[in-house]
Amino acid sequence: MWLKGFISNHVNMKLLKTCVILLLLTVLFFTRRNMDLLQLNYEENFGIVLKKVTSAPRTVPRTAPHTDNFCTFEPLSLADAKEERMLLDSIAWPETPLLPAPFLFDQTSDPAHSIFTILPGRGGVDRHVGDQLEVMVQIYDFQGNPKKSGGDVLLARLHNRALEAGVAGRVVDHLNGSYSAVFPLLWEGSAHVEVTLVHSSEAVTVLHRLNREHPERVLFKSLFRSGSSSETTSCNVCLRQTNQPQCNYSDLRTGEPWFCYKPKKLSCDDRINHMRDGFNVRLKDKEEKLFQSKVNLKVFIHSSGPANVMVLPPMKGQPEVDQGKGKSGLSGYYYQGVWRSLGGTKVHQFNNSSAISQCLKGKVVHMYGDSTVRQWFEYLDASLPDAKEINQNSPKQTGPYMIWDNAKNILVTYRVHGPPLSFIYVPTSELRYIANEIDGLVGGTNTVVVFSVWAHFSPFPIELYIRRLQSIRRAVIRLLNRAPDTLVVIRTANLRGLTPSESLNYSDWYTLQLDKVLRAVFKGFNVRLVDAWEMTLAHHLPHNIHPGRPIVKNMIDILLSYICTK
């Protein structure tokens, strides 16, 4: 009897163990399956596979392509990955409408039907310096129906052309088709409201999709040469995988990615230049209608009533206008054509060559970045007649450039940043990354580092830009650790003129995302900003990737005021 019980218990134990093993195998199967699904969903949603980049240049054989996943980035540290997630959350745009194919154009945002209304002031009709002006904007579609969702891109400015006064407005999206624009009242006299629809929410849907699905739409190529043999192949930061091997030119120190298809007969080491090769933008049916000049691309919205207000002097007992950012959150404003700061360093005027050279006496100024900071170099070059140009035979767009005033011991340099670069021609020997250049500086009390990096990053995943800024920030921290008295100045992004084709790659909406990220990455660090976004928005001159001379003059005044505080 006991033997029968023993056998029964033994069998039950074996069955129990078998069930437990089967259960564990089942859990393991579904866990692995869910992890695969999770990875697949991640790749489809973000379009980025994090693969380790090691050395450069080298041949990179690729497996069969996956059309949505072809951007290669180095893995981030836990801290950088957390920051990236926070940055992405901070720039998340309101949900925009899905566009069925074909979509109904008449139901998209129409600036001609849309209106803005100046709201009554608090406590009476009169408005005084120091008050705030609020404007309500209602967006309508082409059928005259009010929109019920947000996501449109609006700009707002308050100005007085006769006084050469202007200030940017802060726009608030109420997510229901209505928006508020708020302005501080900073000068006496007339103040005229201007509201612009840059893009409809439907256009934002398209722009978002283009960067997610077609980050390689700006085409690049490189020439490879060895002796009498030469070949040209396509290059990009996001290069689709084919059976053709790739050369990996990712930077060894920063990990910044760049790839070219390997030439059939030549080596990866035979690359001699970098060139832009045009554009390949893939729009769906009728989407081009969302980007029409004078229709729905950077078009003014009209007022339902008066578009201007009269501003009286401050009321008795009212404190003077707060010269800090305060509740406006603005950097400054124009008055009589001069930029006045609303916080931080007082802006001085450097109106002639003597004042500029006196400020820069004994200084070394290193400028890095795109053509918007090269414009600053050109301004100083023209303003320092005693300085001699060196490297006069450098490529016009990219440099490197240098001017030297021996008598006053002034040195100013400029060098373009590393790829992506939408310039026609750059020798590979001149492809340098800002972080590496900063690491090569000694720094010190008489050293000024200026950089601007944004204009060439619009058509690419924002993660690429975040990583570039994190790399530059680490170099800035190292510089300030070894030379704390070094002055670091950052020129922010600015608004630009947009044709329909330009807006598909370099839209102000893209620029706005980059600008927000730039400010967030360097917030709290010992750097100074020149707010090019506000300075181009508040000014009466047309938006341009290279702002007009009056704007640049004010920017240089800010830079020199940082250098010469007294």
From TrEMBL:
Sequence ranges assigned to domain NXPE C-terminal in this UniProt record: 339-564
Q: What GO biological process terms are annotated to this protein in UniProt?
A: nervous system development
The signal peptide here is: none
The record, for InterPro entries, names:
Ig_E-set, NXPE4_C, NXPH/NXPE
Q: Which SUPFAM superfamilies match?
A: E set domains, SGNH hydrolase
Give the stretches traversing the membrane. Answer: none
What's the family?
Answer: Belongs to the NXPE family.
Protein name listed in UniProt: NXPE family member 3-like
**What organism is this sequence from?**
Labrus bergylta
Organism taxonomic ancestry: Eukaryota, Metazoa, Chordata, Craniata, Vertebrata
